[in-house]
């Protein structure tokens, strides 16, 4: 199969979808790999690094026009919609529930769109979202600590405190991968940390692995309101796979928070879990609402592309190999986790949560492709 790697054009996106090491593995399996020129520069992988493992460096027109399977990191931008075409398999983060124009562009183009974030195993793990969630969670705690500084509009609080001075209070809403990693870093900085979650089993697990170093509280509307009012940093770490994030923190709650407190919305790719959230960039990461700093960067792992690109390739490569070796139809028949990643096929929306988000017709994937190996 001919596999292309496009250069990211989203603002402040420095990741690339495939490392030279990953490209070599695909080449060894007999596949041709095309990489758009300078696609890897932001992750410290120059064209020469790809050429040394047999990759063909091509133009933007050629990578979109010649590829059978196109790998990206972020969703296509509006200026790329015209490049979408029938017969192309696009494999990338899509987050379609928060982006109706892109959803409609994919449906109209005839492209097959497979979303990293909805590849889901039978035990509900999200293997292609996990590495970026780990990174985003860790960055969230760092961002919260940084933007608490007074010259940056914060309260002027040292998150870890010092002997004789109480540490700051970090509230993490959601105890999944993002929440756990945010808590790990916040604990390391010396903060007082509270995690809100709705699963008692998950909280028991967090209590065990974090050795009781955090407060674990059952999440509810009232508990969220009481917790955020007292917080110095609030990290939104909730996720409903493939669907819009629920708005758990209202404008009223934001208004009641401490002046100079910081909220970090890691769920912004899925619409955000704060009512006052809107996407920002690494170049212009924050804004204030009612005196509360909002950090809502929509591609947080893009700020550490060397780490992120390697982590992403580690996770995606086995699935890329499946599609390349067997073709999409046989690959999804063999692997139910990959099948759940298919969001758009043959002009039909095959992921129910996305269809619900936009009021569009949903077609189960098995109505379009057979999901049992022949």
Quickly name the level 1 CATH class of the largest domain: Alpha Beta
Q: In CATH, what is the homologous superfamily of the largest domain?
A: NAD(P)-binding Rossmann-like Domain
- Look at the structure and give the mean pLDDT: 96
Our count of helices gives: 13
CATH topology of the largest domain: Rossmann fold
Please mark out the parts with pLDDT under 50 across 5 or more consecutive residues, or reply none: none
Overall tally of structural domains? 2
The main sheet orders its strands as 3-2-1-4-5-6-14-15
SS class: alpha/beta
The overall strand count is 15
Q: Percent helix among the residues?
A: 25-40%
Write the layout of secondary structure elements.
Blueprint: E1 2-5, H1 20-28, E2 32-36, H2 47-51, E3 56-58, H3 60-66, E4 69-71, E5 89-92, H4 100-109, E6 112-115, H5 130-146, E7 169-173, H6 177-188, E8 192-197, H7 200-209, E9 215-218, H8 221-229, E10 233-236, H9 251-255, E11 262-265, E12 286-289, E13 292-295, H10 305-326, H11 328-334, H12 336-339, E14 342-345, E15 348-349, H13 352-358
Parallel strand pairs: 1-2, 1-4, 2-3, 4-5, 5-6, 7-8, 7-10, 8-9, 10-11, 11-13
Antiparallel strand pairs: 6-14, 12-13, 14-15
Helix pairs in contact: 5-6, 5-10, 10-11
Notable traits:
374 residues; alpha/beta; Rossmann fold; eight-stranded mixed sheet; globular
């Amino acid at each position: 199969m001919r596999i292309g790697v496009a250069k990211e054009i989203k603002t402040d996106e420095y990741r690339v979808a495939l490392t030279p090491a990953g490209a070599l593995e695909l080449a060894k399996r007999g596949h041709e790999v095309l990489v758009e020129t300078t696609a890897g520069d932001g992750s410290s992988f120059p064209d020469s690094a790809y050429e040394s493992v047999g990759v063909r460096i091509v133009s933007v027109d050629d990578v979109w026009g010649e590829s059978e399977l196109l790998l990206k990191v972020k969703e296509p931008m509006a200026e790329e919609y015209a490049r979408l075409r029938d017969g192309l398999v696009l494999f990338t983060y899509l987050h379609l529930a928060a982006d109706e124009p892109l959803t409609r562009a994919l449906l109209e183009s005839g492209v097959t769109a497979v979303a990293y974030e909805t590849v889901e195993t039978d035990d509900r793990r999200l293997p292609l979202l996990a590495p970026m969630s780990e990174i985003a969670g860790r960055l969230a705690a760092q961002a919260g600590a940084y933007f608490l500084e007074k010259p940056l509009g914060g309260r002027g609080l040292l998150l870890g405190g010092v002997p004789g001075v109480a540490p700051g209070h970090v509230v993490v809403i959601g105890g999944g991968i993002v929440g756990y990693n945010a808590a790990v870093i916040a604990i390391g900085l010396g903060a007082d940390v509270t995690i809100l979650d709705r699963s008692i089993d998950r909280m028991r697990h967090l209590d065990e692995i974090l050795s009781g170093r955090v407060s674990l509280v059952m999440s509810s509307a009232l508990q969220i309101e009481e917790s955020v009012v007292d917080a110095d940093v609030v990290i939104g770490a909730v996720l409903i796979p493939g669907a819009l994030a629920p708005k758990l923190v209202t404008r009223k709650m934001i208004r009641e928070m401490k002046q100079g407190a910081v909220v970090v919305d890691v769920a912004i790719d899925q619409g955000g879990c704060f009512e006052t959230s809107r996407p920002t960039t690494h170049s212009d990461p924050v804004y204030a609402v009612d005196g509360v700093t909002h950090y809502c960067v929509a591609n947080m792992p893009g700020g550490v592309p060397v780490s992120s690109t390697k982590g992403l390739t580690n996770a995606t490569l086995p699935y890329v190999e499946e599609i390349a070796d067997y073709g999409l139809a046989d690959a999804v028949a063999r692997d139910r986790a990959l099948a759940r990643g298919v969001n758009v096929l043959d002009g039909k929306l095959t992921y129910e949560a996305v269809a619900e988000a936009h009021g569009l017709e949903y077609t189960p994937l098995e109505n379009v492709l057979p999901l049992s190996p022949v």
